[in-house]
Amino acid sequence: MEKYKQDIMKNINNIIYMGIIIGILIIGGQSLSSEFLVSNTLNIFNVLFIIVLSCLGLIHKNKEETIKRVSYWSSLLFVIVATFLTIEYTYLTDFEKIGMVFNSDYIYTGMLNINIGSSIDGIGIIFIWLTTLLIVSCVLISWTVVKEEVKMYMILLFIIEILLINLFGVIDLIHFYIIYESILIPIVIMISIWGSREEKKIAAYQIFVYTLIGSIFMLSAIGYIYYMFGTTDYFIIKEGIWTLSDIEQKLLFIGLFIGFAVKIPMVPLHLWLLRAHVEAPTAGSVLLAGILLKMGGYGFLRFNVGLFSSNILDFFFPYITVICIISILYTGIATILQLDIKKIIAYSSISHMNVVVLGIFSQNIQGIEGSVFLMVSHGFVSGSLFLCIGMIYEQTKSRMLYSYNNLAVVMPNYAIIFFLLTLANIAFPITSSFIGELLIFVGVMKANIIAAFFGGMGMIITVFYSFWLYNRLFFDNGMLDEQVKFLNKKGKFRDINEREFASVVLPLIGVGVLGVAPNVLLNIIHMSCMLLLKK
């Protein structure tokens, strides 16, 4: 009883501290301009990261419960700050949003001329917010799963978080590239140490090799840009890239495109993701599907669409469309043939992200806004699906479809949550995915009606395999695995608990809110998407 009272008091104290922090943010925000706060977004998060890292560093590694609590409350603090800054961004005028909110700081070292400042727009700020939200889910789902080196694991999560936040806020090509590749390091470490199976080191090796292939092309393009312009500053390149010949622009486009296509990923550069998802811990899969795949989409938007002229984009659109359609149809059909549940969700992610790419290169406002909207929605939905798969894996240590059926009887609450996520995955009306896919479909129809037709076929395939998966998991097909029968008999097969529910509830709320009130997001990203189309 005494221990119970102490836990209550700790939680009350934590809530009070969070309330004080929120109050400071509100009072401080009133005394500072929105433009000042948004322009210093990266500085605010970097300082916050140093404080959190210092706190975790001071805790002895054997005090695992304390480490988890500090990590949880710290991740919540990141969400609160990100939400506050996102709200501040909405207070900016349209003129300020068009100009992007930036804070430039150059490095001049001999021939080196790099802008290490930040440049925040609506697209960047919304991805920063999505990152902080999913990290909370990662901390919660890892609470009982990670049993070794908990301190190192939590520190890696926050390193990944701060790298992603910085990625979505920088504008210089070299600065972006360094962060873009650096994120690979903590992800590889996480899979190598906390991966769930014996082939985790092979998965880490595959990630390294595929990323290296993309990096060679991307770095070559950046190197040539620096050679021609003497800088990698985004705005200078945007103003001068038209002075290059058509062949130079096309080669640069291809170099950047391949670097980002690996992260989406697009067929045939997708094989690393399948193994990575299968071997990664649950939090690793959430990060891969929820955020890391968005790095490729963000790169396409910011650099391929943002830098190059309409003529170059028109030239490559038919080729990109063919690759996307092949990727969508291939992964959709391949999904139906899988027995590993993680592979099913992984293939589904690839299919959805290639729909996003179609929208990105449609070159109209509906396609661009739809692609950003769907990426945010996909972060919620796909990340939550991996959370759900992790919940049952921890009980049975199996991800094979034949290990489960009739789960609705023993896990009714879990079945309801999974059903809601299934509806979101098929873009059911009043879900956020529906808004994103509808906008993309309209945008792609304007660009190429044949591409829209095949993209629509991919959506139909998604409906088929999503309900097929749900039926196999939650209804009786007479094939229940002996291990699950044993757990049911002993009463050990439990429904979703409070901590697991907390990890998935925020993304679920996001899916619902954006589904019924899409302007909440569209108003934030609209001017930024318009800027990308301005040539």
Automatic annotation (TrEMBL):
<feature type="domain" description="NADH:quinone oxidoreductase/Mrp antiporter transmembrane">
    <location>
        <begin position="172"/>
        <end position="455"/>
    </location>
</feature>
<dbReference type="InterPro" id="IPR010227">
    <property type="entry name" value="NADH_Q_OxRdtase_chainM/4"/>
</dbReference>
<comment type="similarity">
    <text>Belongs to the complex I subunit 4 family.</text>
</comment>
<keyword id="KW-0520">NAD</keyword>
<dbReference type="GO" id="GO:0042773">
    <property type="term" value="P:ATP synthesis coupled electron transport"/>
</dbReference>
<feature type="transmembrane region" description="Helical">
    <location>
        <begin position="177"/>
        <end position="195"/>
    </location>
</feature>
<keyword id="KW-0813">Transport</keyword>
<feature type="transmembrane region" description="Helical">
    <location>
        <begin position="44"/>
        <end position="60"/>
    </location>
</feature>
<feature type="transmembrane region" description="Helical">
    <location>
        <begin position="12"/>
        <end position="32"/>
    </location>
</feature>
<keyword id="KW-1133">Transmembrane helix</keyword>
<protein>
    <recommendedName>
        <fullName>NADH-ubiquinone oxidoreductase chain 4</fullName>
        <ecNumber>7.1.1.2</ecNumber>
    </recommendedName>
</protein>
<feature type="transmembrane region" description="Helical">
    <location>
        <begin position="501"/>
        <end position="525"/>
    </location>
</feature>
<dbReference type="GO" id="GO:0015990">
    <property type="term" value="P:electron transport coupled proton transport"/>
</dbReference>
<feature type="transmembrane region" description="Helical">
    <location>
        <begin position="207"/>
        <end position="229"/>
    </location>
</feature>
<feature type="transmembrane region" description="Helical">
    <location>
        <begin position="371"/>
        <end position="393"/>
    </location>
</feature>
<keyword id="KW-0472">Membrane</keyword>
<dbReference type="Pfam" id="PF00361">
    <property type="entry name" value="Proton_antipo_M"/>
</dbReference>
<keyword id="KW-0812">Transmembrane</keyword>
<feature type="transmembrane region" description="Helical">
    <location>
        <begin position="414"/>
        <end position="435"/>
    </location>
</feature>
<keyword id="KW-0249">Electron transport</keyword>
<feature type="transmembrane region" description="Helical">
    <location>
        <begin position="123"/>
        <end position="146"/>
    </location>
</feature>
<keyword id="KW-0496">Mitochondrion</keyword>
<feature type="transmembrane region" description="Helical">
    <location>
        <begin position="153"/>
        <end position="171"/>
    </location>
</feature>
<comment type="function">
    <text>Core subunit of the mitochondrial membrane respiratory chain NADH dehydrogenase (Complex I) that is believed to belong to the minimal assembly required for catalysis. Complex I functions in the transfer of electrons from NADH to the respiratory chain. The immediate electron acceptor for the enzyme is believed to be ubiquinone.</text>
</comment>
<dbReference type="GO" id="GO:0008137">
    <property type="term" value="F:NADH dehydrogenase (ubiquinone) activity"/>
</dbReference>
<keyword id="KW-0679">Respiratory chain</keyword>
<dbReference type="InterPro" id="IPR001750">
    <property type="entry name" value="ND/Mrp_TM"/>
</dbReference>
<dbReference type="GO" id="GO:0031966">
    <property type="term" value="C:mitochondrial membrane"/>
</dbReference>
<keyword id="KW-0830">Ubiquinone</keyword>
<feature type="transmembrane region" description="Helical">
    <location>
        <begin position="447"/>
        <end position="470"/>
    </location>
</feature>
<feature type="transmembrane region" description="Helical">
    <location>
        <begin position="251"/>
        <end position="274"/>
    </location>
</feature>
<dbReference type="InterPro" id="IPR003918">
    <property type="entry name" value="NADH_UbQ_OxRdtase"/>
</dbReference>
<feature type="transmembrane region" description="Helical">
    <location>
        <begin position="72"/>
        <end position="92"/>
    </location>
</feature>
<comment type="function">
    <text>Core subunit of the mitochondrial membrane respiratory chain NADH dehydrogenase (Complex I) which catalyzes electron transfer from NADH through the respiratory chain, using ubiquinone as an electron acceptor. Essential for the catalytic activity and assembly of complex I.</text>
</comment>
<dbReference type="GO" id="GO:0003954">
    <property type="term" value="F:NADH dehydrogenase activity"/>
</dbReference>
<feature type="transmembrane region" description="Helical">
    <location>
        <begin position="286"/>
        <end position="303"/>
    </location>
</feature>
<feature type="transmembrane region" description="Helical">
    <location>
        <begin position="315"/>
        <end position="337"/>
    </location>
</feature>
<dbReference type="GO" id="GO:0048039">
    <property type="term" value="F:ubiquinone binding"/>
</dbReference>
<feature type="transmembrane region" description="Helical">
    <location>
        <begin position="344"/>
        <end position="365"/>
    </location>
</feature>
